[in-house]
């Protein structure tokens, strides 16, 4: 084969895949000196929500802290009763005392107009309000109650997410649109009408909020559904019709693998198309599972797409008949756990370390090659191979480890590498 046979005169280079550029206004969500920008040229933000009783100030503050440390840049809390509204300023105070300046988002349904009016300290302590148009009220009453909430946002200079949900979609709007559709010469199927109703509810509410004085860039929109293809369809239509920042997430995504896979699938498609400015992975925690798991999944989605970097990535092979020993599996987990545990300290001490790539491979087939492609990697011996583990640093073989302390010695090499490469960046 000659060099000429590799290419033809008409060949074009294959363009590396990358998420499309986003186009949206930029909202600002603040608490004290902490500013979280949403949309525009800001990175895609991660949001989560507590599942504690908001009235329990200490428990809620602790969970907010855990979510923030895990990587949630805004945390939503339920504000559903006068007691919950009264607790919000105390939760904020507890967080401030702990040095946690993550902005709080108040989740309002049915009575938010009254809670924001009667509890001004709650309205001030929150950094953003989530309003569901389907649960504000009907007719003139609904218009008045929606206006009260927007007026509070204007008074206290807060951002607002207008969050439409197909489980609580305005039924009067949907019925009116279904009636109008039935009179079309060729009526649409029911599902596209529902999509249109979700988008219409969000955009009409956003227009109403602007007419009441809320700046367009302080309005964030979401239209959440629980089906992957439905979410993609709705957000493609929504993105084509507005330039408000958009919050993405499957509602009621589910538990465990189902919820993780469904969320990752839907969000990845939309983010790759340049649609989405904040995300939430709405996982139902399994018994004993930390609430922070939904944040971990959201971070992994963004990092996998190359949109953001949060933790050093660990490449590890899945194992096969060549790797009957569990040594490389154990080492891969140890290294991954070690890197994640150290990141809260390393993030400030070693800027850039979150982009580091580590490889922990199990045999000679792909081990040396993958290790060379990583910043630092180790190729462990497979079944029947010589009991030696070469370590590659910046693409070159640096040392070969042997014996019973390979894991500890590789840990030390990783720490030394981080100090040498990133220690001068602070």
Automatic annotation (TrEMBL):
Enzyme category, top tier: oxidoreductase
Highest taxon of the lineage: Bacteria
Pathway: Isoprenoid biosynthesis; isopentenyl diphosphate biosynthesis via DXP pathway; isopentenyl diphosphate from 1-deoxy-D-xylulose 5-phosphate: step 5/6
Keywords for the protein's UniProt record, in alphabetical order: 4Fe-4S, Iron, Iron-sulfur, Isoprene biosynthesis, Metal-binding, Oxidoreductase
Keyword hit for Transit peptide: no
Catalytic activity entry: (2E)-4-hydroxy-3-methylbut-2-enyl diphosphate + oxidized [flavodoxin] + H2O + 2 H(+) = 2-C-methyl-D-erythritol 2,4-cyclic diphosphate + reduced [flavodoxin]
Gene Ontology molecular function: 4-hydroxy-3-methylbut-2-en-1-yl diphosphate synthase activity (ferredoxin)
Residue ranges of domain IspG C-terminal in the record: 314-415
HAMAP family: IspG
Similarity annotation: Belongs to the IspG family.
PANTHER family: 4-HYDROXY-3-METHYLBUT-2-EN-1-YL DIPHOSPHATE SYNTHASE (PTHR30454), 4-HYDROXY-3-METHYLBUT-2-EN-1-YL DIPHOSPHATE SYNTHASE (FERREDOXIN), CHLOROPLASTIC (PTHR30454:SF0)
Protein's recorded name: 4-hydroxy-3-methylbut-2-en-1-yl diphosphate synthase (flavodoxin)
Organism whose genome encodes this protein: Ideonella paludis
């Amino acid at each position: 084969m000659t060099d000429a046979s590799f290419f033809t005169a008409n060949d074009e280079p294959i363009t590396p895949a990358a998420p499309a550029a986003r186009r949206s206004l930029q909202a600002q969500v603040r608490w004290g000196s902490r500013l979280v920008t949403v949309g525009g040229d800001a990175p895609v933000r991660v949001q989560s929500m507590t599942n504690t009783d908001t009235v329990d100030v200490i428990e809620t503050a602790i969970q907010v802290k855990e979510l923030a440390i895990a990587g949630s840049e805004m945390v939503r809390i339920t504000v559903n009763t006068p007691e919950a509204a009264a607790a919000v300023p105390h939760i904020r105070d507890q967080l401030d005392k702990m040095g946690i300046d993550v902005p709080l988002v108040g989740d309002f349904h049915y009575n938010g107009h009254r809670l924001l009016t009667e509890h001004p300290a709650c309205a001030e302590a929150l950094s953003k309000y989530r309003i569901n148009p389907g649960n504000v009220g009907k007719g003139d009453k609904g218009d008045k109650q929606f206006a009260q909430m927007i007026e509070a946002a204007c008074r206290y200079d807060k951002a607002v997410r207008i969050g439409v949900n197909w489980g609580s979609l305005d039924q009067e709007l949907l019925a009116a649109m279904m009636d109008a559709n039935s009179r079309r010469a060729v009526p649409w199927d029911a599902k596209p009408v529902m999509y249109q109703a979700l988008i219409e509810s969000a955009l009409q509410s956003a227009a109403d909020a602007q007419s009441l004085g809320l700046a367009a860039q302080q309005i964030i929109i979401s239209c959440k559904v629980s089906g992957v293809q439905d979410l993609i369809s709705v957000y493609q239509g929504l993105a084509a019709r507005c330039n408000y920042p958009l919050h993405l997430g499957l509602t009621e995504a589910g538990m465990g693998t189902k919820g993780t896979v469904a969320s990752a699938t839907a969000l990845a498609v939309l983010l790759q198309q340049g649609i989405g400015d904040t995300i939430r992975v709405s996982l139902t925690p399994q018994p004993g599972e930390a609430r922070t798991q939904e944040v971990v999944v959201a971070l992994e989605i963004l990092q996998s797409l190359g949109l953001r970097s949060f933790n050093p990535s660990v490449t590890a092979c899945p194992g096969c008949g060549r790797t009957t020993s569990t040594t490389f599996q154990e080492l891969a987990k140890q290294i991954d756990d070690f890197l994640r545990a150290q990141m809260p300290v390393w993030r400030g001490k070693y800027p850039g370390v979150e982009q580091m790539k580590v490889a922990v491979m199990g045999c000679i087939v792909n081990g040396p090659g993958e290790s060379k492609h990583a910043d630092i990697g180790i190729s462990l011996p497979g079944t029947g191979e010589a009991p030696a583990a070469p370590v590659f640093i910046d693409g070159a073989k640096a040392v070969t480890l042997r014996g019973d302390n390979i894991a500890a010695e590789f840990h030390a090499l990783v720490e030394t590498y981080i100090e040498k490469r990133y220690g001068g960046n602070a």
